[in-house]
Amino acid sequence: MAMKIRLARGGSKKRPFYRIVAADSRMPRDGRFIEKLGTYNPLLPKDSEDRVKMDIDRVKHWLAQGAQTTDRVARMLEAAGVTPKTERNNPKKGEPGKKAKDRAEQKAAKDAAPAAEEAAAEE
Fold first, then answer.
1. The domain spanning residue 27 has which CATH number?
2. pTM assigned to the model
């Protein structure tokens, strides 16, 4: 059975509240889980100690059993000092999208056209 330590969403519309759970990876996000390991309340300030609460011993137990963490939970565990920091690299994050690139090309072509006409008129 492939285990995941992940977030299960609760709370009402526009008021999110998450449980940190150990669940079978085949179960739905908010569906059946094996054990509740903690809570995460994103509405609290980042420096609040109640924002993320975890049972570290049980998290370590599940990690020892081979459970994989999702990216968000892995970041929380890194902040808590349970797992070592891993370096992430997303080289495409700062790159503009296809439409923005097309607009930039059109603007460059438009700017280049008057400059070429001026150069031809001077000669």
1. 3.30.1320.10
2. 0.70
Joined together, the tokens standing for residue 113 give 């056209």
Domain count across the chain = 1
Spatial distance between the Cα atoms of 95 and 78, rounded to a whole number of angstroms: 27
| Residue 96 confidence class, pLDDT cut points 50, 70, 90 | confident
CB atoms within 10 A of CB 4: 18
Query: Is 70 exposed, middle or buried, given 0-12, 13-18 or 19+ CB atoms closer than 10 A?
Result: middle
Instruction: Give a yes or no: residue 31 inside a domain.
Output: yes
Do the domain assignments include residue 122? no
Give the 3-state secondary structure of residue 39. strand
- φ, ψ of residue 59 to 5 degrees: the values are -65, -45
How far is the C-alpha of 65 from the C-alpha of 75, rounded, in Å? 20
Q: Taking the C-alpha atoms of 75, 77, 82 and 88 in order, what is their torsion angle to the nearest 10 degrees? A: -10
Confidence check: pLDDT of 113 > 90: no
Q: Which residue's entry shows tokens 């739905």? A: 28
